[in-house]
Write a structure and sequence with these properties.
Elements (H helix, E strand, L loop, with lengths): L8 E2 L2 E2 L2 H13 L3 H18 L15 H37 L5
Length: 107
């Protein structure tokens, strides 16, 4: 890091020597990654504390009726099973009809 020098006057205002020395130490300490992270965390905390209103909630709370969900799943399962069995029975009937029509009779 380059040598740090704090000016004696900023915008025409004289900066006391003690303040310049403390500022120099703070700038040199900021070269350390740990100190930078600590400063960033402190600034983040300070901005959150200074925020005038609480942070808005982005998630919605849903009231879910478990019994209604169970009923809907049960009805869907019944309907799916009924459709499957109807299709299976129809396939078996068509298979039997094909076998009896295609197979030679022994009589």
């Amino acid at each position: 890091m380059a040598k740090v020098k704090i000016p004696k006057k900023i915008a025409g205002v004289k900066i006391p020597k003690k303040a310049r020395k403390k500022a120099k130490k703070a700038i040199e300490a900021a070269d350390n990654p740990f100190v930078r992270g600590l400063a960033a965390a402190a600034l983040t905390g300070a901005t959150r504390a200074a925020r005038p209103e609480p942070r808005p909630e982005f998630s919605a709370r849903l009231d879910i009726d478990g019994e209604a969900i169970v009923g809907a799943v049960r009805d869907a399962a019944r309907e799916g099973l009924r459709a499957f069995l109807e299709g299976l029975e129809q396939g078996l009937r068509e298979g039997r009809a094909d076998e009896s029509g295609d197979a030679p009779t022994a009589h």
